[in-house]
Amino acid sequence: MAAKPIIAIKHRVTDYAGLVNLGNRVFVSLTGNLNYPTPVPALASLQTAVTDVVNAIAVWGPKGNRGPHTALVDLREKALTLSQTLKSEAQYVQNTAQTAAGSDYVAMGAIIQTSGFQLASSKTPQGTLQAVQSFHNFVSRKLNANQVKMKWKKPLNTTSAGNVKSYDIFRGTTTVFSAAVQMATTTKTSFIDTNSTAGSVTWSYWIVPVNTNGRGVVSNAVTVTVPSM
Questions:
Q1: Nearest to 166 by CA among 222, 96, 216
Q2: Engineering a disulfide at 208: which of 56, 144, 168, 184 sits with its beta carbon 3.0 to 4.6 angstroms away?
Q3: What is the CATH number of the domain that holds 191?
Q4: pLDDT on residue 150
């Protein structure tokens, strides 16, 4: 399913020319646009806000021949008004497109793009995760004698940290993964296990990363002998 399209206004308040260009583009795109019959704010208000910034830029002057500080203050105030007007217009466009398209996000995106606004970049689907990296037994003096700590790093092909939802931890008494049992799930990249039996045990561990596509590639086994307390 396509992601919900969201309008992105990337111009800062101090990007005066960028705001003017966006304001002009939206004004032209919304004029007579049947997708947006009643723009809010009104297009006249948007055009006024654009014109005010253009005039304020002229008074402030080009670099090397600037006007008084009061002209800069006025320009900043006019630019802030234009920025706020564009944000309000964008919200109107977003809501109107949502009403028209419902949950059809492809259609919603197409309607929004007739407004002159740009859409935020869609996140790249992660796909199946590769195996975790650097999976190993972490030796620490802070652990009890009957404890073992496993550590690893996120999969190599992870496009962002949030794309790994969790890690499934498997443990077995042999090095055969199919005979192992899932013993825990964690969002961290480490796990501490405790031997509560009366004698020493040898356990093999595997880590499986999980995202919205499900489980990824199983790690290699790490086998550890854990003494009793």
A1: 216
A2: 168
A3: 2.60.40.10
A4: 96
Cα–Cα dist 104/102, whole Å: 6
> Is pLDDT of 89 > 60?
yes
The encoded tokens of residue 131 equal 């195996």
CA gap 225, 228 in Å, rounded: 10
Per-residue pLDDT averaged across 88-103, rounded? 95
Selection from 159, 170, 171 nearest residue 212 by Cα: 159
Q: What's the domain count of the chain?
A: 2
Q: 24 and 111: one domain?
A: yes
* Ranges assigned E (strand) in 88-200: 118-119, 133-138, 147-153, 166-172, 181-186, 190-194
171: left (phi over 0), alpha (psi -120 to 50) or beta: beta
pLDDT, tens digit, 9 for 90 and up, residues 18-49: 999 999 999 999 999 999 999 999 999 999 99
